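pinned: reference chain
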Amino acid sequence: MDERHEHGQENQPHEWPQLEAMREHLGNLPFPQGIDEAIRQGMSRAKQRRRRRKLVRLCAYSACTLLIVIVLSVRFSPAVAAFVKEIPVLGSIVELIQYDKGLQLALENDFMQKVSLYEDIDGIKVTIDGVVADESRVMIFYTLTNMDGRKGAVYLDEAKIVNSGDIQYGLSYGNSGFDEVWELKQGSIDMNLQEGTQLPNHLELEMKLSPYDKSVKQGDAVYHFNIPIDKEKFEGMYETIAINKTVTVEGQHITFGEMTVYPTRIGIEVEYDAANTKKLFYFDDIRLVDEKGEAFGTIMNGVSASQIDENRTILYFQSNYFLKPKELYLRARSIRALDKSKLEVRVDLDEMKLLSRPDSLLSLESTSKRELWNERGLIFNLRNDEMRSYNLFKNSYTDATGQTFESNRSESSNEYYQYFIEKVEQQSPITLTIEDYPARIYGDVNIQIR
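pinned: its structure tokens
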């Protein structure tokens, strides 16, 4: 039986300023022994992810290890404990406090729109807890509840806006794990809006949950929600600043154009000179720093960039909109980059060996087969100098005849990267194109914005 229940927004405002008390309280607590290892293990487990063509950028979500360690080791003050008790999405809120200063500031400034819509399909309830929205981004927070504990591992297979119309957008979302036994899962859907897009008063969201094990009788479940958006809450809340400065790093020219500051994030237009000899992937440590030395880095658990064309992109940063800094600097030290002549990796599927690769860091280890998914996995080893998960290859690849194929799934850990290809007729060797790689150029980027 399918049941759908909708609840209107409550009129009583939440006391979001209390979030500051919670942050200060957590900040003053000593971290328990072993937390570094717990975080590393949690991040490693969280790096399994799915990729889809429709997404602007799919970012893996961190596991809940940090939340669990903090919650189990903290004795909340009475004020903080009372505040925590009011929040149905504690996990999401704590993650935002830890990883996105901009969203934290938005919550502290009463920017959350409470929704409280839920739908129960065959024992799995999906609740839309709330949204944080402005003219650039919509964050939708949801909770999955295993009502009777009988359902096995499920994941968010697809999310889309049904009434998108002329809305130009991309969605990103991740899954925190595929545990067979579970009670509650929390996550978010990040809606990335193109400049000038007008949001409707309601978003019709469709979410499809699927069983991870395709052999089980439990089928896909599709949930529908009509989410109200209070546009008056954020209308006109943005600021544009012209940077228009070019820097040179190891002979590679980079121009920073216009910066737009929204409550949920900051977007900076970046253009790479077409004459550059290297393909520039991503900045390792780019950040905005104010006069007090407080840094706001790039988005970590959401859409980190939007590609405009081959040489232009928009980088997204955590927002300082509510701080109104008097001085602001853009700083970076290293950029992941690779010679343009080394971007293709050719794989001999018959002999299972690499015919070309950028350097000795990359090797082909083995293959795997997933009969239920009708796909074959190529398992690469990437000897990395840090704990980082890479979208190593682009989704599309070609075979020896030049025919193009699509890979919509990949999985990665600290060193291993698995790239899935469909088990269809394709002539060996195939050619994969590198999308990111742990090779770097270094320079001191320090631009005064205001």
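why pinned: Confidence is low (pLDDT under 50) at residues 1-85. The chain is about 15% helix and 45% strand.
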